[in-house]
Amino acid sequence: MEFKIAVLQGDGIGPEITNAAISVLDAVAIKFGHKFNYRFPLIGGAAIDRDGVPLPQSTIDECKSSQAVLLGAVGGPKWDNLPGHLRPEKGLLGIRNALGLYANIRPALLHSELKGASPLKNEITKNGIDLVVVRELIGGIYFGERGLRNSPNGKQAYDTEAYSVKEVERIARIAFDLAKNRRRKVTSVDKANVLDSSKLWRTTVAKVAESFPDVQLENMFVDNAAMQLVRDPSQFDVILTSNMFGDILSDEAAMITGSIGLLPSSSLGDSKCGLFEPIHGSAPDIAGKDAANPIATILSAAMLLVTSLDLPAEATAVENAVKRVLSKGWRTPDIYSTGSKKATCSKMGELIALEVLNA
User: Fold this and answer.
1) Which of 35, 57, 253, 358 has its CA at 20 to 30 Å from residue 216's CA atom?
2) Does 237 qualify as catalytic in the annotation?
3) 191 is catalytic
4) Model confidence over 24-48: pLDDT tens digits?
């Protein structure tokens, strides 16, 4: 079978980690008899340097004509002094909005081989970590009205958090559908004791929950959720939350599993074409050093295979290959410990690709 994949390499370590993922996808193509046609439109700082904007229309068009989108990372100090609307991150927000990707799925799994890499004590991780953050992606404070205005105390900046019932309903259904095939528990995270947007969020989620009587609904304030993630992460199954809260909590969930370089994500809407990316940033401090961890990007490619291309066996092959490489002691610098075998970014991609081919 033949598929078209748009690869948004972006900035910093983006090209390195996407190249590693492509090497694994190429191994999948050989192993299973597929053909992946890659396109490489620009986004973020790379697009600014060429076209003056972080998201050219040509990039949007290329993504819309593809069956799936794989993203590396955007941003870096080179573009830090640009006006807000021209920052590389605007490209990321823009492509999510252009493709109607309102649901961000971020699984956090502590691999048994990497328990020692978690910053949490053994007595906390003994029950494992296996949760999914379902983050609303194109609403809330990141997309609300914002600006600068004068006030009695001088210049004032403001950002607006706003959610409609429809926006909350559609992301809540994603979370409950996901929980049905897991441990049947949804923890809805908000700040309903303070924010009106969270009050609407909570009442709307409760209404959606009525259609899922076999799934337990728990409500939790975001500050308590942040604490509970480090106190007892095993209590969580599916965490449902807003755009900003999900951005923060999913990074916390990533670190307690050992490294932010391990966690993939998918951004989905109503069409089959999704966007798949690691949850970490562009890490400009190690860009070009072949030191990044590509596993999150490779696992994002596995999510791409099963979700957008309907290739579950191929996705499982990639996931199993990652586990075998880790079980053999290979580690990138972020998860390296004494006694492990050190691998560069490209080497890790080659090792996982070989495991796919040789399985």
Assistant:
1) 253
2) no
3) yes
4) 999 999 999 999 999 999 999 999 9
